[in-house]
Amino acid sequence: MNPDGATTEGCPAPSASSAPSAVRQRALLTLLGDDDPTVVETIREQLAPRGRPQPWLKAHRLHGDPVIRARVRELWDARARIDADREFLEFCAGHGEHFDLEEAVWMLARTRNPEAPIEAYQAQLDGWAQVAAPAVEAATDGAGVIAALNAVLFGEHGFRGNSEQYFDPDNSYMDRVIDRRRGIPITLCCLYQFVARRLGLPVVGIGMPGHFLCRYQDAQGEWLIDAFHGGRLVTRSEARQRLAHFALPESDGSILLQPITARRCLQRMIANLHVIHQERRDAAESQRLQRYLVLLSR
Fold first, then answer.
1. Which residues is 221 bridged to in the sheet?
2. Among candidates 55, 65, 27, which has minimal Cα distance to 43?
C-alpha cells in the first residue's frame, strides 16, 4: 500500500496533461525511493511512460532526499540522452566530410551528459583565446604563436595527456576533458584547434596512426604540435620515424601527415570509445557508438 492509499499495481499512470495532486506526488516519489527494485521499476514506468518523464518531475531534480533526487535525475537524463542520441544520429547521417567539428564534438558530449553547459564551455574557450591573443599577435613566427597558446593551455590551465588513465572514456568527451584538464591526443588536439580557430590561426589536425598531432602552417613554414605532451614541437622527421613503426611506404606516410577531415576526426574519436567499451564488455554503449560509426563510414 502506498501513502496515497493505492497499491503500485492499481496506481494509474499520471496524465501528461495535468500534474497529480501534491499528496500523490509525494506518494509516488516516496515509492521511487523504495529499497525494493520491483517497486522502483513499477513506479519508474508510471512516472516515465515510454521513457518520457512526466513534466512535474523536473522540479524534483533537486529533491531533498538524495536517493529520490538521483532517481528523478536518472529519469530525466535517460530521456535527454535519447533525444541527444537521435539528434547526433541525424547529424552524422546528414553531413559529408566537412562540417563544424566543434559543433559535432559538443553534440557527442551531450549524448553522454545531456545537461552539459555547452555555452559555458564555449565561453571558456573564448576566454582562453582572448588571454593568448596579445602574445600571439606579438609573435614573429609559428614557434612564437605556438608558445603563446601553450602558455595558456598547458601552462596556466594545466592541460595534459592522461597517461595514467588513458582508456578512461571521459578522455573522449570534451566537457570532461575541460573539467579535468586531461585528455588523449585527439581530444587535446581538438581543444587546441578550437582555441586557435577563435584567433584565426591556421591550425589543423593530423591523424597519424596511433597518435594525433596538430599542424600550424603559414608562409614561413610548418610546425607539428604534440598536444598530448604539452604542445611539444615535433619535426617532420620525427613524425616519419613514428610512421615507420607501422611499416608504411613513404608515399603513405606523406598522405598520413596531411590534415584530417572533420568527419574522419569525429569517426576516429568515436572509434576510440567503441574499442574501450568493447573491451569493457559494455554492450549498450558499444551498440550506441556502433550506430554512429556506421553512419560516419558511409
1. 218
2. 27
Q: Within this chain, do residues 56 and 200 fall inside the same structural domain, yes or no?
A: no
Question: Is the pLDDT reported for residue 83 higher than 80?
Answer: yes
d(CA 192, CA 215): 10
Give the end of a domain, one of 49, 65, 89. Answer: 89
Do 104 and 76 fall into the same domain?
Answer: no
CB 93 within 8 A of CB 87: no
pLDDT of residue 73: 84
pLDDT over threshold 50, residue 15: no
Give a three-class secondary structure readout of 178-215.
HHHCEECHHHHHHHHHHHHHHCCCCEEEECCCCCCEEE
> Residue 233 is part of which domain span?
96-296
CA 196, distance to chain mean position in Å, is: 19
Beta bridge partner(s), residue 22: none
Q: What is the pLDDT of residues 194-231, one digit of tens each?
A: 999 999 999 999 998 888 999 999 999 999 999 999 99
Residue 8 placed within a domain: no
Q: Note whether 201 and 234 are same-domain residues.
A: yes
Give the amino acid at 202.
P
What is the total count of domains within the chain? Answer: 2
